[in-house]
């Protein structure tokens, strides 16, 4: 059975971590607007430069840009999408509904990853990722087995994100509470919301998501 889901939660809630597991375990397609925007910023274009400034401040990129990115991906076809970090505003949520309908898809569930702000600061400031394969690590909760070497692909290109500092995180959290958290009520009203305890161990969170998706 093919399903399309949204992973909804504040910065550091574990959306990327769980999305990668769903890709591995269920062969789903991860559509992370954060990853797409990071690819755009390293493209060296004028648009990429503007995107980089906004992201580093911790603010949201315009709806027009991110909806355009998702539209392109959905037009490529495929099934079983994980929307990771999208939608983040009501306008994006409405646009996603329309794009799914136009491409003959539907939305099955919105996994709301519940966490508290204190845990987010620890998670964000300890995070690093592999520049080659995108695997996500943490200094304390998920270090690499061999220091400086990615467990998944063996690359030594391990990086910290420019927006993973306490100042940007404050803005990212404010943006989340002002613009993204209204989506919790939006999807609750549509009967799609499935809350999970994002503070649990990673395997436990994965189990809760599997249960919400029907095993
Ligand atoms: P984006 O890349 O989407 O970042 P984010 O939403 O801030 O989320 P993160 O990637 O920081 O966290 P995550 O929830 O994926 O957590 P992770 O799994 O890595 O967006 C970045 C920027 O792009 C935005 O600020 C904005 O500017 C722009 N943007 C993106 N989408 C946009 C949109 N739709 N509209 C407008 N602008 C947009 O986990 C974090 C850490 O915790 C890791 O180290 C991990 O190992 C650890 N961890 C994970 N789970 C657990 C657990 N259960 N227990 C202990 N540790 C855990």
TrEMBL record:
Keywords: ATP-binding, Cytoplasm, Kinase, Metal-binding, Nucleotide biosynthesis, Nucleotide-binding, Transferase, Zinc. Its EC number is 2.7.4.3. Zn(2+) binds at residues 130, 133, 150, 153. GO terms for molecular function: AMP kinase activity; ATP binding; zinc ion binding. Residues 127-163 form the Adenylate kinase active site lid domain. Belongs to the adenylate kinase family. This is Adenylate kinase. It comes from Paracoccus siganidrum. The gene is adk.
């Amino acid at each position: 059975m093919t399903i399309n889901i949204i992973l909804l939660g504040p910065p550091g809630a574990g959306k990327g971590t769980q999305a990668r597991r769903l890709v591995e375990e269920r062969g789903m397609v991860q559509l992370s607007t954060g990853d797409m925007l990071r690819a755009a910023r390293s493209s060296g274009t004028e648009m990429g430069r503007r995107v980089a400034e906004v992201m580093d401040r911790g603010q949201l990129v315009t709806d027009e840009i991110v909806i355009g990115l998702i539209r392109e991906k959905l037009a490529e076809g495929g099934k079983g999408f994980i929307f990771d970090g999208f939608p983040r505003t009501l306008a994006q949520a409405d646009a996603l509904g329309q794009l799914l309908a136009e491409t003959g898809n539907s939305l099955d569930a919105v996994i709301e990853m519940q966490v508290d702000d204190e845990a987010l600061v620890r998670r964000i400031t300890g995070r690093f990722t592999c520049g080659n394969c995108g695997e996500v690590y943490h200094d304390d909760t998920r270090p690499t087995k061999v220091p400086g070497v990615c467990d998944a692909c063996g690359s030594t290109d391990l990086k910290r994100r420019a927006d993973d500092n306490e100042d940007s995180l404050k803005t990212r959290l404010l943006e989340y509470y002002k613009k993204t958290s209204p989506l919790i009520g939006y999807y609750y009203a549509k009967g799609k919301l499935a809350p999970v305890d994002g503070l649990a161990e990673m395997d436990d969170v994965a189990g809760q998501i599997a249960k919400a998706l029907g095993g």
